[in-house]
Specification:
alpha/beta; Rossmann fold; Nucleotidyltransferase, domain 5; 2 domains; 8-stranded mixed β-sheet; 6-stranded mixed β-sheet; 16 strands
Length: 477
Amino acid sequence: MELHPKQKEVAKSKARFKVIRWGRKGGKTAYERESIGYKATAKIEDLFYLSKTKFDTGRKVIYIAPTRLQARTIVWEALKTRYADIGIPNEALLEMKVNNADGLYTTIMVGGWENRENYRGLTDVIHITFDETDSLKDFFIAWKEIFRPMFLDTSGSADFIGTPDKTNPNLRRLEKEAENNPVWECFHATSKDNPYLSVSELDAIEQEYQGDSTAYKQEILAEHIDDSGALFRHSALVDMFSNTITKKEEKYLIVDIAGDGTDKTVFTFWQGLEWYRVEIFERLNTEGIINQIREYAASERIPYSQIAVDAIGEGAGVASSSLLDGIVAFKSSLGAIKTDIDPVRLPNVHYTKEASLISEYRNLRSQCVFTLADLVNNHLISARIEDVRIKEQVIEELAMYQDVSKGDSKRMATEKPHIKELLGRSPDCSDTLIMRMFFVIKEKLLPNQSEENIKAYDKLMNQFDRNFNSQELNSTR
């Protein structure tokens, strides 16, 4: 195969990990077919990054597409044709054994992302290609738990290829991780950079896409496109786990309680706006949750007034316990907290001593979500959490929140039932981040600011201290 200039740039690179973001029909998959074949058949000494020259089970090269059917269609049939004279195909397993220049053999393995667990523990892997990377769900969890450890004894390589997708920006995330890392290199090319494509067809599609510049930029120019309705910037969500902020001394404990037996009870620990610890329990009953809260409050020296508990459903019994007097019974369906000065009713106008306070949010949950988004997007919140699963889940969950305001001057974020439907699970961890914002909002109402603020503060505390059972306990937060 004669490589075009952009393909040659990738081929000449000696980086172990290559992020290849190209437009549709840019030649990325065609290049990878040739690259896989070369790595499978070349002398081991020509693959400079490898740490050993003998492989007990024969060296292995892996190609993974979003589904097994796509892997068969995109690569498998082409591999059979390409290596018909030297390869031994296994149709059932989508594996092909080929002789290599060292007089041994290499197994080329082709598969779908849905079967990624089958690769766990595989040995002698020298290279992996991930195709359509932005279509691979929970990519970073599997990369760090399944695939990256394969290279511990081979120092193998990986290529991450695809056209960007704003709903699941794995390529953008990989490019960020590649910054200032000498073993990584990133490559960008448009569909126009493939000289084998018809110029007239490229011109025609550009004309057809004039009414949808976003699609053209993403699919043809391979540009990263931000989701204009998203409340959280994806890059800022990623940065949250590496941000350095000035911490305050105050500690907080936020508890999201399992609702129907399938959700988990999540405890998150905060020092100021730094999330420094998380504990997760399954099937913890009311008594157990109460005891756990009391234990954590004592060991972490967290005052009850700085503990918030989800007071919906199963959490009602916890929040109303006499053993936890003073905690905040958080109920996100309550009205938003009035914190902003009404610009219409200014002080000393209409015979008022103080300006009245207003709120521009549909409910308390929306107010907390917008507050959290502002802190995250401005890098004012930090998460010192190492668990990759929790990290990826929080990023995935918060990335789904949109501004769904209805034009009635009340700002509204995506409701939780819709988030659960999209995820297929409850967003337990990110719920605690949202609940943490109650205390941020409350800080705006500290007494001594104004007479109106004092009244609002007292009303707020009474609202949360009252018997919240007056509202339906099974209402959706």
